[in-house]
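3.2 Worked example (two chains)
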Amino acid sequence: MPHFIIECSQDILQQKTPDEIMDAVYNVAESTGLFAVNDIKVRLQPYQYYQLGKDKNNFMHVFGYIMEGRSTKQKADLSTQISTQLTALLPDISFLSVNISEFEAATYSNKALINPENTNHNRHFGL
């Protein structure tokens, strides 16, 4: 936790490498101090087929999924910082957007939480 999933048009990868794009998002997430560095996960999914509005060439959207507990301001700042960093990296992009959503702790599960040795229900157990 958190997970940042970057969806973009395939042509974006002709402007910047996947690593450059993912590093930009990762570095922003790390710089906020909201997350443990080893917890940040970033993935990129390019699309070959997509449809956009008239005279729009490409797109990028970042879906951020974080554990509940951050303030609205913290989430808004995270979204703005990611948008700012990606705009600087890709100034000619037609559409760029970021959305931060929360996981509900009560309904979240992972490998650590189901480990029988994890008697304290620590979601970071064994990491």
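3.2.1 Second chain
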Amino acid sequence: MADLQITNQIKMLRFMNGEMTQKELAERVGVTRQTIMAIEAAKYSPSLEVAFKIAAVFDLPLESVFQYQ
């Protein structure tokens, strides 16, 4: 079975929302910029709470921000 991973649209969503920086998103979510960077690069899967907070920043449902492939 192939490795499944969580992918995301964070980089595109940040760009579409006034070119929001990773730092700005991190401050709004309550995590570090390094955490956002790792999640965005799919090197780290966010906790459910953090994933919901990120989706809320963009006012989107969770599945519009994150995909499980």
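3.3 Remarks
The chain has a mean pLDDT of 94.
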